[in-house]
Write a structure and sequence with these properties.
By secondary structure, this protein is mostly helical. It has one domain. 79% of the residues lie in helices and 0% in strands. The radius of gyration is 19 Å and the shape is elongated. The two termini are 19 Å apart.
């Protein structure tokens, strides 16, 4: 996890990198909420700030342990991000999660580790479900969406083939929620819980 700060120049730079991470999350949440997309440059910016945070933390260590620690930390950072991307491609191929949401979750996993990311995903999906239900009730489409879900499940069971759940041409954008925004809010909630308790 990229969250250790020491009282030194490098510790301060690491803290700055972590502040950039939170700023990146804030911008990603806003962009997803406003435009239903998260620009790739934000994800790249988050990756670079994570790597810089690790470099600054390594620079603050004793001379003999800097390079091994940095190599281990960087490999963990990259492996976590890539692992989430590979696992998430399945959900994306079914139209259940957007590409930007997937890249954001990979960034969260790279920065925070698997255990924190799993908590964030659980809270984020709950927030997304509540937001989605509220949206369906507001537009009067709850019954229609639940009928569609049951037809989708029946179709999978009868055809024994998993097909794409969401198709923007067929389904429109009325049922879409900014899931990346939910994941960003979940990150804040998970860390507030950690800092308060």
């Amino acid at each position: 996890m990229v969250w250790e700060v020491r009282n030194s120049v490098y510790g301060s730079l690491s803290y700055l990198s972590q502040s950039v991470f939170w700023g990146t999350l804030l911008l990603a949440a806003w962009s997803d909420w406003k435009y239903y997309r998260i620009p790739n440059r934000l994800i790249i910016f988050g990756i670079v700030s994570g790597i810089m945070s690790l470099v600054f933390q390594a620079a603050d260590l004793e001379a003999g342990s800097k390079i091994p620690w940095l190599l281990l930390a960087l490999s963990g950072f990259l492996v976590r991000g890539v692992a989430v991307l590979v696992l998430g491609i399945f959900l994306h191929s079914l139209g259940m999660i957007g590409a930007a949401d997937l890249k954001l979750v990979a960034l969260l996993a790279a920065w925070l580790g698997f255990s924190e990311t799993i908590k964030i995903l659980c809270v984020g999906f709950i927030l997304g479900a509540v937001w989605s239900l509220q949206k369906m009730l507001r537009y009067g489409s709850a019954f229609q969406r639940f009928l569609y879900l049951s037809a989708y499940i029946r179709q999978i069971l009868s055809n024994k083939k998993i097909e794409k759940y969401y198709d923007p041409v067929r389904d429109g954008t009325e049922c879409v929620i900014p899931l990346g925004t939910c994941f960003c809010m979940a990150t804040v909630l998970v860390f507030l819980e950690k800092w308060i308790f």
